[in-house]
Amino acid sequence: MKGANFNVFSEDFYHKQNLISVLNYFFVYFIIAGACFIKIPQLRKIITKKTAVGLSFMSIYLEIFVATSLIVFSIYEKINFILYVDVILINVQNLILVFFMWKYHKIYSKSVQILKVCFYISFILFTLYVLPKKLVPLLGLSSAPLSCFSKLPQIYLNHKNKNTGNLSLLTYTFILCGNLARIFIILFNIKNQIYLINCGLVSFLNCTILFQIVYYWKNTTKILMQADKIKKK
């Protein structure tokens, strides 16, 4: 990352390029700080309600696959670690999210769960140690369409159910803010079109999900209250 002068009493501080650099540092550390707990509201909601109703398994799986691909791509491209550490933090939280989704939904047997975990570990090892270097750019290129596709099952599920279940408004607000900040960081630091296209499209789709949460808010609240009453009986 480009250096910045943080001395507000210095004339250099107020130069346009330096102000952009300061803003860049702010966004980078803002994203990292936010990434530490961005999925916590969603996890808390699932653990409290003991249900993951309204969440799309396919969306979460694809998010994990895309994040892993971007992490490996960043390692190969020798991109500054601080510029993708947030992707690692969010991916870890998504893996924890999957654990609780499996725990409360129980749609997979233990053997199927173990098989899925083994497949994921195999994918990581393959991309890190077996994938030819000439094919590494495909990890970045495939992440853009897959990032978009990962949001579509959730958007469709929300539209189909006319409610957003246990989706967290706070989590998706944080995600969208992080997406917008990341666009600035990519333009300033990386200038990688693959990263930029990916982030721009994902920002739009996350905005769509956030809109659905607000739009279906009354119906979602009504349905969740009915579900709570049934549980108490």
TrEMBL record:
Superkingdom of this protein's organism: Eukaryota
One Pfam match: PQ-loop
Transmembrane segments: 20-40, 52-75, 81-102, 114-132, 169-188, 194-217
Main location: membrane
Keyword Kinase: no
Keywords in alphabetical order: Membrane, Repeat, Transmembrane, Transmembrane helix, Transport
GO CC terms of this entry: membrane
Membrane-related topology note: Multi-pass membrane protein
Keyword Repeat: yes
Subcellular localization, as worded in the UniProt entry: Membrane
Gene3D superfamilies found in the cross-reference section: 1.20.1280.290
Residue ranges the record marks as coiled coil: none
Protein family according to the UniProt entry: Belongs to the MPDU1 (TC 2.A.43.3) family.
Protein name: PQ-loop repeat-containing protein
Species lineage: Eukaryota, Sar, Alveolata, Apicomplexa, Aconoidasida
